[in-house]
């Protein structure tokens, strides 16, 4: 009887196998390889565990595409011409542990694209066209250990972009075009051990972002155009293996790695190093690899050579000069052989290497360096009065920092059609003439930080229509340079912090219709006109900390449906009335209200806010109570330190709510006297309340929030109620 039943089951299963597929019902595998499927078949056996759909043509994975196969553990969608994942595409796949979406055409990862995959351990997105990841896209992947984003088109990583990946161990970002990393880009990755950032466009070591990864042991930054590693550039407490090979390194500071004391292996192969100083603070270092560097084994290398012996560090590499020592390995050299008698001191790394003069059709200007491999030009800190010309036409990055140019004349950069990134920081620039950037049709990044600009002509940016990242911070603007953004339809990020701007007026941002990030911290803004932000309908991040606002600029927040981060810290806002965040309540995720001297918050101040809010900063204020936040069920960070709560029976609901949150919030009592300084959680004053017995402490929240506040995360303590 059993045999008959099994046979019958086999027949029905075979009958349900979709036409171009092969179904192995014993192993619960289904293969539908390289077929002409244009939709996910709906007759795949329900009990299938592994589904291989490689090489089909789906274009879109619609919502609920796999609801008929809830037992899937492995799903392979490589080379399926997928361009879009609809929100909820994988809903119902709560058992899936492996998802491969490599070699498709996905451009954007939306917030709910990967919803429902709470058991997923490996996600492979290699070889797509992902340009942007919306913060929150990985928010539901609490079991993910490997995330592979190699070979995409990422240029920028915003803050908290990997939020939710609590157990991620390996993040692979190689072969992108990463140029800018938000300082908090890696802030939510407490378990990360391995990070691959090789083959990107990083020009400097992203030290601030990397400092968040205090558990990472393995970091690959090879094949990036990094020229210099500065003092204490890398603060990674657990780092053991660092790869900086095939970069453009010309110099490394003696204490560059002093804040990464566990470092064992340092790979500096194939750079432009003529030598290294003795390295400080790396007592555990075992090996430094210097093969493929033009090492000058003169007396200048002696301190490093002596340090190698003293610190018992093995060095791999060979001398390139002087001729008598060429080809000799470092470990075979004797101190006395490294002489300087007839040798000139080594040319400074900023002197042009001969071979690099011929890049492109033009020479390299006198006193500058042109690096043909990376299409870079640099004349940093050469005391130049005028902007040099005649850089190779294929130059993509031009670094002119720290030269006293004072003015940028019209047509200052002729022939540089391919230039992507232009650095003009600290150049004493007072005037950017109309047409100064004419002809820079590929320019994406323009850095004008720390100059003396107080005004900009409307035509200042004429001829650079691709400009997306504009840094004008630390200048002398007393108002936003209105009219200048009409010519910048692709502007994404605008830095105007630390100027002396007094107000945001209507029309100031006219034309900036694609703006996503607006940084205005550290100005003197007292007023924001209701229509000032109207042109920036795509704005996601608005940073207004450290200004002179005396109230929340509610009227100006209407019409910003994508705003997810609002920073109002360090503004003298003493009172907060009803519904002040209502205009952005449906999108806001991160709200900063700390250090304001806030004395009173209306019970209805947070009307409209709720489960969307991920982080709320209220520390260092003066109010004694806060509104009911029981519907803030998505909170991952809540900071209530240094707020003088009045711990009486009216505060009991807040105390209960804090206990339910699995968060370290730092709330303490400011009064009455017998509770002063005690944690709200521990204050004895609540025991006299009439409803004290109901819902005792220690209740657990069904939405157990996993992320601790920043302070507890950094100290490595486990999250605990305030």
TrEMBL record:
Cross-referenced PROSITE patterns: LRR
Biased composition (Polar residues): 700-710
All residue ranges annotated as the LRRCT domain in the record: 293-341, 644-690
Keyword tags: Disulfide bond, Extracellular matrix, Glycoprotein, Leucine-rich repeat, Repeat, Secreted, Signal
Segments for region (Disordered): 341-360, 689-722
InterPro entries in alphabetical order: Cys-rich_flank_reg_C, Leu-rich_rpt, Leu-rich_rpt_typical-subtyp, LRR_dom_sf, LRR_TM_domain-containing, LRRNT
Domain LRRNT residues, every copy: 16-50, 363-397
Transmembrane regions: none
Top-level taxon in the UniProt lineage: Eukaryota
One Pfam family here: LRR_8
Primary residence: secreted
Compartments where located: Secreted, Extracellular space, Extracellular matrix
Listed GO CC annotations: plasma membrane
Family: Belongs to the small leucine-rich proteoglycan (SLRP) family. SLRP class IV subfamily.
Quaternary structure note: Associates with collagen and binds to collagen fibrils.
Function summary: Potential negative modulator of chondrocyte differentiation. Inhibits collagen fibrillogenesis in vitro. May influence chondrocyte's differentiation by acting on its cellular collagenous microenvironment.
The name this protein goes by in its record: Chondroadherin-like protein
